[in-house]
Amino acid sequence: IVGGFLITGASNGFNQIIERDLDQKMSRTANRPLPTGRMSVNEALIASSLFAVIGALLLFQINYFAGVLGVLALVLYVFIYTPMKRVSPWAVFVGAFPGAIPPMLGVIAVTGTFDENAGMIAGMLFFIQFIWQFPHFWAIAWVLDEDYAKGGFSLLPSKSRKSRRSAFIILLYTLVVVPVSLIPWVLELTGDLTLIIGAIAGTWFFLYAYKLYMNLDDKTAKKLMFASFIYLPIIQFLYVFNKI
Question: pTM higher than 0.85, yes or no?
């Protein structure tokens, strides 16, 4: 937990160093330490580097694979996702990889191996969180679209930005999330409660995406964003507490 926390902190720190000039332009980020001058770039570099090194060392103390996954998440986030955000909406796809590594890392930290059983569970949890990130992040991108535009970011799935097309793509990915989240039940790794509660939660999550498609407004996008915050923990708690 501490190793993952430090790697995540380092990733965010390096991200803010790279985007410090852009952060000044956006209301969401203008009060961060670097844009306001509360912290110098050198101080941020030292803090982020220390977090990265200590976090990686802690993960490598668990096992080799855990350390590699932690470092990979940091590299993908800082050196690929961060610069790509101003270039293409495909940055969301790239960013979903480091965003989905934590549950995989957790499995490998426990098992220490990518053998058939551990690899399947790690890959399954990675894939579920990977797919979930698209409606989750696009809901955030919809709410913050005007603010993102000040920094030169266009992260909605369509060039038409807050459009029916973007809302349809969000709706489609939300629909995919629901059956994907039930894969552990299909593989008989969790009980029927996962199917029942997962289906109810998934329908509720999908309804907010459908409402966004119908309404095309920030208020509904914000509701979808909060629904995504709630949906994933519910599903993951079911995986843990509803084992067969």
Answer: yes
What is the C-alpha to C-alpha distance for residues 171 and 188, in angstroms, rounded to an integer?
28
Query: What long-range pairs does 199-202 form, CB within 8 A, spacing at least 24?
Result: 201/230, 201/231, 201/234, 201/235, 202/177, 202/178, 202/231
108 CB burial (10 A radius; 0-12, 13-18, 19+): buried
Q: Which two tokens stand for residue 14?
A: 């390096």
pLDDT digits (tens, 9 = 90+) for 161-217: 999 999 999 999 999 999 999 999 999 999 999 999 999 999 999 999 999 999 999
**Residues 27-58: pLDDT tens digits?**
999 999 999 999 999 999 999 999 999 999 99
